[in-house]
Design a protein that fits this description.
alpha/beta; elongated; single chain; metal-binding; cobalt; hydrolase; 4-stranded antiparallel beta sheet; Acetylornithine deacetylase; 11 helices; 390 residues
């Protein structure tokens, strides 16, 4: 006797949570497990392996391969649990009061589990419009792993009609999110005994000038509020997030590292803001450092980059998402997703819609409500019915 759909979802989610796929570890055992599960239904996916051979994405087509289809996309990596106060093993699924606890339950193995649980229905439906599963890695460190997969998809003759990225939105239809550009600035100073501090080049003090400038520009961005009321934070944000420097109280510091980010509303605004800061630092700070010593200066390095998402409210994929979700509204969010890369790299119109709340993501005792997973299953069920008709 076939198990009920909720039980299938629970079992699959328990299996997925049990794989420790924190981003600094391999996800290959999890990918192999999914491949084995799909093989039982006669389905074979395509692995896209990274340069290290330790990570892979999986592209799966259910239905005809010569027709444009619709994508259900989720990532397999999770954020670390180190330093968090969990009440149980984070890699073992625990159910209490209608909530399923475990690392990644909300972000976003719950969505992946629902999609996999609905595979029997997809196969049975004999789809006329294919459904694709796009399962990626390293989303949490800058949407890294989906890019090789999207480059391959962009080469295909038959392009998908659209994509649903299942990040936690409480099944709300999200048509836009901010982009992000992160930069690391490494200041190279000149060490001296602090008693002769003027002979040195203080890397921390020059870094402090950069931090002050970042703060000044952040205030200016906040004042220039967007007219786009769909965002809960209706302006681009800019901040310094990490600073490292100094060795001892009596040494002029010869090194300091500063990491900063911009989350921009405009498609390319994030990079434009950080590029302007880099240009300012090279023009205003670096010459003064080099005037003291030619070997001093600032090295800039991109940490991560993804564009903003801005899908038109009247786009066909938005209309379809609302129909499948049983909603008439749409919104935008501050957090980033792979949706903008589906749009920018492969020209696939995308929306973000998935079970659970972003408030639970990355937290100790992360959970997703079973009711949310069942709502998501209903969404996929209606997608199957839509694709069955062709």
């Amino acid at each position: 006797m076939q198990s009920s759909r909720p039980d299938r979802i629970r079992k699959l989610l328990a299996d997925l949570v049990a794989f420790d796929t924190v981003s600094d570890r391999t996800n290959l055992p999890l990918i192999a497990h999914i491949e084995s599960y799909l093989a039982a239904f006669g389905i074979k996916g395509e692995r896209i392996i990274d340069e290290t051979g330790k990570k892979a994405s999986l592209w799966v087509t259910i239905g005809p391969e010569d027709r444009p289809g619709l994508v259900l996309s989720g990532h397999t990596d999770v954020v670390p649990v180190v330093g968090q106060d969990w009440s149980h093993d984070p890699f073992k699924l625990v159910e209490r009061g209608g909530k399923l606890y475990g690392r990644g339950t909300t972000d976003m193995k719950g969505f992946v589990a629902v999609c996999l649980a609905m595979v029997p229905e997809m196969v049975e439906a004999k789809l006329k419009t294919p459904i694709h599963l796009a399962i990626s890695y390293d989303e949490e460190i800058g949407c890294v792993g989906v890019r090789p997969m999207l480059r391959e998809i962009a080469k295909t003759k038959v392009k998908p009609l659209g994509a649903f990225i299942g990040e936690p939105t409480e099944m709300k239809v999200i048509i836009g999110h901010k982009g992000k550009h992160g930069v690391r600035a490494t200041f190279r100073g000149l060490a001296r005994h602090s008693s002769i501090a003027p002979d040195g080049v203080n890397a921390i003090e020059y870094a402090a000038e950069l931090i002050t400038e970042i703060r000044r520009r952040a205030v200016k961005l906040a004042a220039a509020r967007s007219t786009d009321s769909l965002y809960d934070v209706p302006h681009s944000t800019l901040l310094t997030s990490i600073v490292h420097g100094g060795a001892a109280l009596n040494i002029v510091p010869d090194a300091c590292t500063v990491e900063f980010e911009c989350r921009g509303i405009g498609i390319t605004e994030s990079r434009e803001v950080t590029d302007a800061i880099v240009a300012w630092a090279k023009a205003e700070l670096e010459p003064a450092m080099k005037a003291k010593n030619a070997d001093c200066g600032i090295d800039f390095e991109e940490i991560l980059d993804y564009p903003a998402l801005d899908t038109a409210a009247d786009a066909a994929i938005v209309t379809l998402a609302k129909s499948l979700a049983g909603r008439n509204d749409h919104a935008k969010v501050a957090f980033g997703t792979e949706a903008s890369l589906f749009a920018s790299m492969a020209d696939i119109p995308s929306v973000v819609i998935g079970p659970g709340s972003i408030a639970q993501a990355h937290t100790p005792d992360e959970f997703v409500e079973m009711a949310e997973l069942e709502k998501c299953a209903g969404f996929v069920e209606r997608l199957i019915a839509h694709c069955k008709k062709g």
